Amino acid sequence: MVVSGTGKIHSAMSVAFLLNEFKNSIIDSSWILNFGTCGAPKVFSKIGESFLIHKITDEGSSKSVYPDILFKSPILESPLLTVDKPVFENETSELPDTLVDMEAFGFFQASRKFFSSDRIRIVKTVSDHFTKLESSRETNVSDKISRIIEDTIPKIHSILVIPVSRSAEIDLKPDETSAFLHIIEILRLSETETIQLKDWMIGYKIRTGNSPKQGLAILKSQNGILNSEKIGVKTREEGKKGLHALKQFYQS
Length: 252
Hints:
By secondary structure, the chain is of the alpha/beta class. Helix content is 38%, strand content 15%. The chain is globular and about 65 Å long.
């Protein structure tokens, strides 16, 4: 366990130090958890509610990363925005419409050097609605945060007890495999992209219970990717556009 401090740089440095120290102890069943508090719009969540994060966007670079959730989550899932400075409702004209923190993106980037994305889990608990937490005569900020965390421990535990999925035990059915192979042909995917696609499809199947073959319909619904006159993409740009559309679908 490590307490990183505030900000994605501190988070990344702390994780890199921790994992480098224990790199010889990491085995196939190992995984890493980031738990922390976050802000959220009032309409999005109440104080104390916890979420398993399936997408992290870095505000500074606009880059997004995706923890692969290859299990059915016992708590709600949500995307998350990592910012470089605190967001307060009285200091900005437009508030984010999602969960907001300052560490998760750095945590994920550093963790990816040691773990595949399905072995990185991030849980965030809402501590405020973009308002400054201040101490009072009755209680201080630390006590407020401690109470929020104490109340959410059972939800954190529900994530901790889920083992890493063994991919060999999970596979696609014949009709899903047919759709998988068809998508590979349509988008002209590389070997790395093919592996990514299969991981997304299996993760989607586990989390939702639905067939991932629906991805073909997603390709047909995206303008410029596939229509009645096209049997496949003609450029790498079209292929990447189609793969991105599938990623959004399978990991949403």
